[in-house]
Amino acid sequence: MRRYAIMLGAALIAAPMPAISQVAPAAQPGTIATARAIVSKLRIERTMDPMFQQIMPLMTANVENAMATAPKTPEFLKAKLKTEEGRKQIGDIISAEFTAAFREHYPDIAEGAAEEYRKLFSEPELKAILAFYTSPTGAKLLEALPQLQQVLSEQGRALGREAGMTAFPKIQARLAALGAPATK
User: Fold this and answer.
1) Residue 108: which domain range?
2) pLDDT in 10s for each residue of the chain, 184 residues
3) How far apart are CA 86 and CA 93, in angstroms?
């Protein structure tokens, strides 16, 4: 049972968090140039790198497990996956290549973010946001965001584990009831 609770907790940790609220689009969208200036201040790689590094062990393990059971995986790789040293070597390669592939898409992510800013905020609002991020307080906030996100992420994982431990016995009971004979 503990194993299933841990797996459920891991699934909850890896799941993306839903948006808390939605911002209404601006009546007159701002310009993409101002939106891009805001996104460049955000330095999204500082947010994206830690996020991808958190999910990398799960992704790597999934690929390794798939390789270990896939009929087309060469036998020498299957043999390597059976040793701790081989699994680490293969895991390092998988992790490095996934990380590089993710980073190649950062410009696309930044452009998508800029487009969302442009749609959600008017030009005066975008300029006010940019002015704030350029101010000493805004610059300090931008510097602190990765640390704040790390703390909030750790709190979210702890909450996910706790929720999983609370919910799992109830999930088990309800799933077991699906197989119970019907009563009249």
Assistant:
1) 28-147
2) 444 333 333 333 333 443 434 667 767 888 999 999 999 998 888 888 888 888 899 999 999 999 999 999 999 999 999 999 999 999 999 999 999 999 999 999 999 999 999 999 999 999 999 999 999 999 999 999 888 888 888 898 888 889 989 998 999 899 888 987 876 6
3) 11
**CA–CA gap between residue 16 and residue 50 (Å, rounded):** 14
Q: Is residue 96 included in any domain, yes or no?
A: yes
- Single-letter code of the amino acid located at 18: P
Domain count, the chain: 1
Token pair recorded at residue 176? 């077991």
Report pTM.
Answer: 0.61
Which residue matches tokens 């609770």? 5
Query: Would 116 be classed as within a structural domain?
Result: yes
